Every structure is written in C-alpha cells, then in structure tokens.
Amino acid sequence: MSEVNTGGGGGGKKGGKIRSKKQSTRIDMTPMVDLAFLLLTFFMLATTFSKPKTMELVMPEKPKPDDLPPKVQERNVLTVLLAKDNKVVWYQGITNPQPTVTNYSSTGIRKVLLEKSREVGKKFVVLIKPSDGSTYRNVVDILDEMAITNVRSYALVDIATTDTDLLKAQSL
Amino acid sequence: MPKIKPNRASPSLDMTPMVDLAFLLVTFFMLTTKFTSDDPVAVDMPKSISEIRLPDSNILTILISKDGRVFYNMDNKIKRAQLIKEIGTKYNINFTPGQVSDFAILSSFGLPIGNLPQFLDATPEERKLIEQPGIPTDSLNNQLADWLVYSRMVNPQLRIAIKGDGAANYPVVKRIINTLQENRISRFNLITNLESGPVAAAQ
Fold first, then answer.
1. Span A128-139, mean pLDDT?
2. Within a domain: residue B21?
3. Interacting residues of A170 by C-beta distance below 8 A, sequence separation 6+
C-alpha cells in the first residue's frame, strides 16, 4: 500500500515482461467462519421452533333486552359443570338434574359426550359452566373435548346459583 | 543414513464446504427465527389438539399469569407509539418522546396506567426488578377495556389472543372474557401448545 511506483510507465526491468505479482487466491477464512458460527449459535438458541397454536373461541354477542331466548328441548341439553380439583360434573336436561361426577380423561367426560351426542343427534347442545374453583386449563381442556368429540353447538356460560348449590351438595 | 522425514500435511485445511454449510444454516435460522418474547412472567400454556397457527402480525396478546395478574402486549412499533399517545390524552398523562419510543419497543407489561411513566423511565435492567401488579380489570376501574378500545382504534385489524397460564383461576379469565364481550369482541383466540393427539389426552 505504502509503496509508490516511481518507475515510469513502460520501462520496467531490463526489457523483460512486466509480471504482475501473483497473489495467492486463498484467503484466510478463519475470522469469517468464527463469525458465521457465532451467528449460527445465536440464532439456533434464540429461535422458537414450536410455534404456539391457537384455539378460536367465538362468544355470542350480548343479547339485546327484547331478544327471545332460543328454544331447545330440555333433553337435548347437556350441562357440564367444571368443578375444582379437575373434576367435571354433568347432567342432562335442566329440571331435576341428576349430576354425575367424572374427570377430563378420555374415559371420563369424552365418553359421556360421545354417548350423549349419538343419543340426541344433531340438536345436541352443551352448556359449559366453569365454577369459580376451576382453572383456565380446565376451560381449554373442555373446549378441546368439544373439538375432539365433534360437538358443534356448545356455549361457555356463567354458572347459575342452582349449579353452585349442586356442586356444594357434591362437596365440590 | 538419511533421516526419514514424515510427509507433513499442511495444517491449513480447505474450509470452504464447512463455511458453505455454516452460512446456509445461518441464513436458514435468520429467516425462520421468531424470537422468544421475554414475558415478565413465565406462562405455562395448556395443551390442545388445535392446529391453527397464530398469525404473525396484528396480534394483541393478553397474558394471564398463574396468580391472576393481567399483562398487555401488542405488536407493531408504530401503532404502539400511536396508542400510548392516545391513551395518554385520555388519562391526562403526558408521555415524553423518550417514553413513547420506549413504550414502542416494550414487551408485555402489567401496570396501572399511572405507574407507566415511572416504569418507562427506568432502564431495561431496572424494569425486570419492578414488581408488576397487573392491569386493573375490575369493573370500577377497567383499564384493560381502555387498552382494548384504543388498540382497536389505532389498528382495526387487530386480533385478540389470550395467553393464559393453565393454573390461572377461572374468575380472572371470566372477567377478561366479559370485558371483551362488552367491547363487542366476540371472536378471539386462546393460545395453546400442541398436544400430540386425542389418544394422549389430558389427565
């Protein structure tokens, strides 16, 4: 770099050919490789592979005061109460409920849902009522069961006092 | 007798294929990466069999921690800057330009709006030490509702996602769902982890 070519053009050495100094085509790649691996490690550690999945939940709009409640046959309705300690209480119909306690396993509420939806058919409606003792996981689990058992019409509703009394009677 | 010299191989080896591979991987990771968001609390999401992917942009995340605190997060820096100005005028808080730009790059936060300027003035290291009480969601002082309304105003395409800890109590979730419904948001997403299948169902 610091050399200055003082010899005028042409001249050179004793009439010989001007040979440009051949430089090796190999360059030292070590720093580049260092950097490449540094970046590689960084991105490998910073990346998240399992992208979170989502569940779509569509809640009904708040009913207007003059809206009539939809008419359903009582025996088509299955109420699922989410109790504390990962327990589920279900009953069919609305008046004079006969609650049964079960859990979130595949032999628990899933079996019930499958049986009842086969029994009732297309008009099957599930009301999910999470109690104050239930957790977010319970809600996601039961919504998941709806997807697994292919129940089309279900609703997440607030728990009624009659239902809390029912849970109390089961000491849940 | 002449010494037998071992045929010494040159210590420099051809690194070109290795470099090729390394850069290929770098490029791959650079393009596919999505950084793990540093949430102020660890959230253990419940599992579901749902395979719908969360969209990449226009997401408002409501974080629910195990102990029922509520955190707010929205993507898009420009929209966030707009949002903080809007919400500042509503609550009569003047955010300085520094605070606005800090808010734009902030991750989730869970503070009543009154504590926000002070929080933004702190350095990122100091912020980690600050105990965040969560955004007030009770009916008397529902600041979450305001955040939702103003967020939707600055970004109408926003999708709402709830990222809750599995152990969070339902009453907190109910309050949030009610808040969403009151603001006529009836379609929202629950962020979950993927479960292997219905066979390996939850216990």
1. 88
2. no
3. A83, A89, A99, A101
CA distance A124 to A129: 16
CB pair distance less than 8 Å for B174 and A158? yes
Yes or no, beta carbons of B201 and A105 under 8 Å apart: yes
Those residues whose C-beta lies under 8 Å from the C-beta of residue A124, and which sit 6 or more positions away, are: A76, A78, A116, A117, A151, A152, A153
Q: How many domains does chain B have?
A: 1
Domain ranges of chain A: 74-169
Minimum distance, in Å, between the CA of residue A48 and any CA atom of chain B: 6
pLDDT at A3 over 50: no
Structurally, at CATH architecture level, domain A74-169 sits in: 2-Layer Sandwich (3.30)
Residues within 8 A of B (CB atoms), A 90-119 only: 103-106, 110
Shortest Cα distance, chain A CAs vs residue B170, angstroms: 5
DSSP state of A76: G
| Residue A123: how many other CB atoms lie within 10 Å | 12
Q: Which residues of B touch A64 (CB under 8 A)?
A: none
Nearest to A43 by CA among B174, B30, B202: B30
Tell me which residue has tokens 């979170």.
A52
3-class SS at A17? coil
**pLDDT category of residue B203 using cuts at 50, 70 and 90:** very low
pLDDT per position as a tens digit, B93-123? 888 888 888 888 888 888 888 888 888 888 8
- Domain-located, residue B46: no
Residues A22-60: pLDDT tens digits? Answer: 777 777 778 888 888 898 888 888 777 666 788 888 887
pTM: 0.73
- Planar angle of CA A99, A103, A108, nearest 5 degrees: 90
Residues of B in contact with A110 (CB under 8 A): 201
Can you tell me the distance from the alpha carbon of B75 to that of B159, in angstroms, rounded to the nearest whole number? 11
